[in-house]
Specification:
Layout (H helix, E strand, L loop, with lengths): L5 H46 L10 H8 E7 L28 E3 L11 E3 L1 E8 L7 E11 L4 E9 L5 E8 L13 H5 L16 E3 L9 E3 L5 H15 L5 H10 L1
Parallel strand pairs: 8-9
Antiparallel strand pairs: 1-4, 2-3, 4-5, 5-6, 6-7
Helix pairs in contact: 1-2
Length: 259
């Protein structure tokens, strides 16, 4: 048989494709558990980062610190009710895969869709920052947030104090914004600006602003990212959306009412 024939070339290519696809498939299946573990660890790291608890914690201790200082609750966003008791493993609850099912999501009217996400899950996790491993008194709450930036959907966590007035911190773990511009939402200087920033006023109105003309001493204003106006506006809008009535607003109202 002529090794250089068209038939032999086609057969060789097919065999190589089958072998390579088999190897990739086995690798994907074999590494799936590790990939899931890494995603879960990354989520915990970002929750702790927003809560101001990550500094000083090594990678090996992230899960330990998370277990000691964070309690996961599942919230019905339609009512604001805590429905955690319905779940055996609330730490593992992920609403993202459920968004493909109409019974697990709501469509957001365009005039109310500040975050430009079009659809929102019915239930979402909230992470309670505990005082200590033995004291469950809440020091604050960490909310998962997402919304449209310039090129991508920004996904992150926003931590609020227990009184629901000021931010503890913010972090973004997934986006595709422009390096050196919109991607600066990950920079320390931008994240640090959120520590202690005033989010709600005494009347429960959201007053946080991201602006190019920040007034010195205004603790409800964050400096806009240079050259990234649309990304900056996206961050402000997603914060207002998820803390408002279309997001965690009803849950937040239940907390402030109880206090």
């Amino acid at each position: 048989m002529n090794k250089d024939s068209i038939a032999n070339t086609i057969i060789t290519a097919i065999v190589l494709c089958l072998v390579c696809s088999t190897i990739v498939s086995f690798a994907s299946v074999g590494l799936r558990n590790r990939q899931n573990e890494n995603r879960a660890l990354d989520k915990k790291k970002n929750v702790l980062l927003a809560a101001g608890l990550l500094e000083g914690a090594s990678t090996r201790k992230v899960s330990e610190v998370f277990a000691e200082r964070i309690e996961t609750r599942i919230i019905d966003l339609e009512t604001g009710a805590d429905v955690t008791k319905e779940y055996d493993k609330p730490d593992e609850f992920d609403p993202a895969p459920l968004l493909i099912y109409r019974e697990h999501r709501v469509d957001i009217p365009a005039d109310q869709d500040l975050a430009q996400i079009k659809q929102r899950e019915l239930r979402a996790p909230v992470y309670v920052i505990k005082t200590s491993a033995t004291d469950n008194t809440p020091l604050g709450y960490v909310f998962p947030v997402r919304g449209k930036g310039l090129w991508s959907t920004l996904r992150g966590f926003l931590a609020m104090d227990a009184g629901m007035k000021n931010s503890i911190g913010i972090t973004f773990y997934e986006h595709a914004e422009t390096p050196g511009l919109g991607a600066e939402i990950e920079a320390d200087y931008f994240r640090n600006a959120w520590k202690g920033a005033k989010i709600f006023d005494d009347k429960g109105q959201i007053v946080i602003e991201i602006t190019k003309a920040r007034v010195e001493g205004a603790n409800n204003q964050i400096d806009s990212l240079s050259g990234a106006t649309i990304t900056s506006e996206g961050v402000e809008k997603l914060v207002k959306f998820w803390l408002g009535e279309n997001g965690f607003g009803r849950f937040i109202a239940s907390l402030t009412k109880a206090s």
